[in-house]
Amino acid sequence: MQQGTRRHRLLVGLSVALILVVALSGPNAAKPDLRSGWPLDGLLPFTLSSALVTGLLWVAYAVAAVAMALALWRPVPALGRRTPWVLGGLGLLAVLAAPIGSADHVNYAAYGRILWLGGDPWTASPADFAGGSDPITSAVEEPWRTEPSVYGPLASLIQAGAAAIGGTHLRLVVLAWQVVVVAAWLLVRWCLRRLVDEENAGRVDVLWTLNPLVFAVGVLGAHVDVLAIALVLTACVGVGRSAGPAWSLVAGGLVAAATSVKFTYAVALLALLLAGRGVRRALWLLAGWGAVLVVLHLWTGGHVYDQVGRSRRAVSLATPWRLLLEWSRTSSVEVSTMRSIITVAAGVAMIGLAVLIWRATRPLGGREPSERQGSLGLARRAAWITLVLTAAYGLLAPYTLPWYDLVAWGLLPLVVPSVLDGILLARLTLIAAAYVPGRVIGMTPGVEALTLGLRREVTPWLQLGLWVVAVTLLLHTTHRRGRISDDDGPDGWGHPPAPRRRAR
């Protein structure tokens, strides 16, 4: 093993170990009490203070960023024969550890419980259900106690299945959901290995499997986004098998399933349509997508997205857009007007950034599917377009949280190494650190002031700086691409391209 690879994996191991100390200890500021009294609430026989939890996670994320930076600059081989042991060990630990980084998994349990008992999670809030006395829904924490579900029909069905398994035992409900998330995490890796060649297999393990930030935020966080990205990539695998009607129909249905987990993943349908290969294929994709959505919404009704519509103008604390919103509170501009301005400005900026990312990156095998690549090239192109759109959204969205970046990291291994790798690494590190420890309760006043100060006063400016750096790097790369043939090789980090030869 090369020295760089050894250092990378030692740092990955250190980062994951620090994160697991938080995840396997007792209930703390990063993980709510799941009310079971089981050993599964904390396999390590101690409870960490909110200050220690915060410090450990900040150090773990910093170490992870260094480890990832080393791997981005030097190619790292795939896991090889160690794969079953690594995947099995990490997956088992992820299930045994109570989720960290937020209390969203308790929300999932509550919405599933409401649906399982015959309620409507899209209109009934956890605080209102069963008079507030239900053993599962009463565990939901602020600020989500009075909020109905924002998740789609399929996510809610799976959450209801977890509720059926766990019954009145919150830890069991969460455990059943964790199994789904870990299975989805493994499915993402399986899909990626179907879509990349052996030469680039190492990127799958560096960017997804052994990425401590993805593991902490997505898998240990037990977020629904891991399931959605697994469905999107499964759709890409289907397209990669054949561009014929049957697989196009299946791919459309799988994207509909992802949309029915979280509405924003409908962007994958647009990517599949833009990837090419004719009108008939597009019609089959739309037929598969529409059929699944019609079936699900005949059952649930169209009101499942009402909550998404109500929250469309929200602005989270750690984004640069928040600076504008706070400024409007002390100016003559109405806050509601500023929210509208931010929504429009963000949309326009996303389009511009997506164009820059599109011009500065390319999928494995080239921008256009060749005859030799066949359907595989089509699948890679669809994944690339999805990455372009979701990366621009993640970087510039007014309301954004760490797990919103997971879709980009799930697709990044299918793209040639470029400056986008480093941009997304900086973005995920900043946003993950900003939301440590991850809950709004369970902290001492000093820790709350420190972490909230980082989130509100520091991170927006750091992200603003990242925007400037990102645009500069993407413009520079785009300028170089104008002088370099697309067939000369990667034009970002890794292997530099050869200069184009002049005709004599």
UniProtKB/TrEMBL annotation:
Q: Which residues cross the membrane?
A: 49-73, 85-103, 172-192, 213-240, 246-275, 282-300, 341-361, 382-401, 407-426
Q: Does the keyword Nucleotide-binding apply?
A: no
Keyword list, A-Z:
Membrane, Transmembrane, Transmembrane helix
The record's region (Disordered) falls at 485-504
Name of the protein in question: Integral membrane protein
